[in-house]
Design a protein that fits this description.
161 residues, mainly alpha, 4 strands
Length: 161
Amino acid sequence: MVRYKCNACGQSFDSEKKVDTGIRCPFCGAMINTYEECANQANGYDPNMYNGAFNSGYQQGYNQAYSQMNHIGVFDAGQSGKSRGVAGLLAIFLGAIGIHYFYLGKNFAGVLFLLIVVLSCGILSVFTGVFSLVQGIVFFTLTQEQFESKYVYCYESVPLF
């Protein structure tokens, strides 16, 4: 057993296998560096950079070309298998009845939105629709890691903004 601690969310967890390249946090989905990778970055060397160049200056560890190469598209599924683009479109077009929450696996929130609309005979669908429209726009503005940690891997029954 190897114990890891996530720098993003601060949670600790155990893994049965030791991973040399990195492992994803099961709570927030952030990538956790292993000892070897951390040692290389502390020395100023990033093995993922082009031509093996060294980092320098105040942006040490940042490589724009590498980050663009690994850019995940809006409609590409992340670590969780959920796409923020699909969730955003569902929230914008069918969010008044909570369909986007069912897609994210938050069934309680989906049933809650559905009950609000049905029990109010559609009167409160204006409020749930505006709320979901804003939430759908927020889905498009987040990165995939932020989206998954805030809406997919969270423990909240009804994740808000």
